[in-house]
Automatic annotation (TrEMBL):
One Gene Ontology CC term in the entry: cytoplasm
Subcellular location: Cytoplasm
Major localisation: cytoplasm
Full protein name: Xylose isomerase
Cofactor: Mg(2+)
The gene coding this protein: xylA
Amino acid sequence: MSAPFFGDLAPIAYAGPESRSPLAFRWYDKDRVVLGKRMEEHMRFAVCYWHSFTWPGGDPFGGETFLRPWMHGADEMALARAKADVAFDLFRILGVPFYTFHDRDVAPEGATLAESNRNVREIAEIFARKQEETGIGLLWGTANLFSNRRFMSGAATNPDPDVFTFAAAQVKNAIDVTRELGGSNYVLWGGREGYETLLNTSLSRELDQAGRFLSMVVDYKHRTGFKGTILIEPKPKEPTKHQYDYDVATVYGFLARYGLEKEVKVNIEQNHALLAGHTFEHELAMARALGIFGSVDLNRGDGINGWDTDQFAMSGEEMTLAWVEILRAGGFTDGGFNFDAKIRRQSLDPEDLVIAHVASMDVTAKALLAAAAIVEDGDLDGAVAARYAGWDGAEGKAILAGERSLEDLAARAEAEGLDPQPKSGRQEYLERLVSLYH
């Protein structure tokens, strides 16, 4: 590429709420302190490599629309190096502290596994230099175990143990690279860990295979001294008919079965929550309740299109509700907001990619301010606490502590002539309360 892809775009600056420039932050002021932390530390924004620099703009009914200069040429490694330059230029323009990648996004697949691994490592060396130059870090890495035809029947859950072995080798290299680049997490996304039909599927075998694979990953993490968090990303369907990591609750049940509930957390995506029939805030709340909240893929789905549209998050109301749950969970530690989002295939200009990130960062920042005000004011949490106040009393505590039997409760109900009456849940009042903040 003879000229920088983004031209002479300067780093995006904070300009305040009065600004109307699409290339300025109105709400994201990274140094603003909210609830005792800088906004940048709350957000931990990361740009994803695959949608931003690898996706060509295709959909199920049409091919490439973007025609990016690093996507076409005979020397694939030269293109990969050029793509790395463009990627870090965008990270610099946006001022994000992190990025994320799949191994197959950053470097082409070779004729052999060894060649593929060498390709990834060559680009990882470029990443290491650029990280040192810019101060930008790796939020997480992962391995693409779904694009190659060998994974058409899954990776860890494949009926062929040789595919399982190949996947293990690919994951080992991706974990090694993630560790060497100082990654905060490693993600396992089971894109094809599911089934199309039960006619050719042994559920028990495949679940045991997935449990063994994840146990091996956790063991390897500890043996190699990787300090990051291992994450699973729940997704219910697409491309397979039914995926084993359907939603947060399903993932927790899987982790508990194989004794991994203390070792692995979840990376939650709004679009996947929608496909599972949940809301974004439900999945966040469930992860918090189960103690496995880890990180977030920041995007949104389309309520009409029943597939993974991966649009940039632009709903202030939705993000406010999500932030309330994240703050209740104590905020991010190793995790963060990864922009697992892609611009629409009609958004052809380089500037469109920048504006999409800027706009979503602003929406997320404004939502943080709203959620922080909700948490600080305490009215919402107070209403919830009041609703469950009886469980904080002596009798409620005794029941939960196992100090009452079924016979004890039956005897008390009869002796005291209990006739409890329902109390209003005040849903509309609480919805109005939340609406006052955003």
